[in-house]
Amino acid sequence: MTTNDEGAGQPAQQKPVRQKRADAQRNQQALLAAAATVFVASGVEAPVREIAAAAGVGMGTIYRHFPTRADLVVAVYRHQVEACAEAGPVLLAKGGSPHAALSQWVNLFVDFLVTKHGLAAVLRSDSAGFEALHTYFLDRLVPVCAQLLNAAAEAGETSTDIDAYELMRGIGNLCIGTDNDPRYDARHMVKLLIAGLLQSRLT
Length: 203
Fold this sequence. Notes:
Arc Repressor Mutant, subunit A, DNA-binding, HTH-type_TetR-like_transc_reg, transcription, transcription cis-regulatory region binding
């Protein structure tokens, strides 16, 4: 009877551990989402206390997960890449216009590019690490952009000769310098570019 009782109790001992790990994962994801929002608003040099306040945690919690600012920036970068990559299929699955899904995805991509601003400066001492992140960025996001473009082309909304990498590169170029010139609205220019994809099919 003792052996059976011990065996029966084993899964019950493991369940709290799994739950604790799941809670910790959710808390870390919430922290990264808050940090990304702060980075968009204030840049990657934003004070840690601002990030802690946005996440509703103490500064010690952030330093426990991310001992250096570079650790936090890289984690936010990867978190945003994954969020952007996962959003593409979700937007397409809503059943609306593929061009509209592309437009919504591009808005998320622009948010990501704003978050990315300043990353090179933070990681300037680790060029190899930065290159690895750039490769990861391309591997995850170019196929998603291509999926959206192909869906729009198959629906007859856009031309079939638009390359995903070129489009993303063009959007990135439009976003350069947006923080330094209050008269320049990168989001407006990107919106015109995406609207132009639709118009190019109609002309």
